[in-house]
Amino acid sequence: MSKRCIYFDCAATVPPCQEALSTFEKISLSSFANSSSNHGLGFESSKMLEKARAQIGKYLHVLPEEVLFTSGASEGNNLAIQGVARHNASWGKRIITTKGEHPSVLEVFKHLEKEGFDVVYLDYDKDGNLDLQQLSSALNEHVSLVSIMAVNNEVGYLFPLEKIYSLVKEKSRALLHVDATQAIGKENLSSSVYDLMTFSGHKITALKGSGVLVKKKRVELDPLIYGGSQENGLRAGTSALPLDCALASALRVTLASQNERREQAKKVKQYLSEELSKMDEVVITSPVNSTPFILSFALKEHKGSVIAQALSNEGIYISTKSACSSREEGYSYVLKSAGYDEILSSNGIRLSFYGYETLEQAKEFMDVFSSLLKDIKVR
Ligand code: PMP
Question: Does any ligand 1 atom lie closer than 6 A to the CB of residue 179?
Answer without folding.
Answer: yes
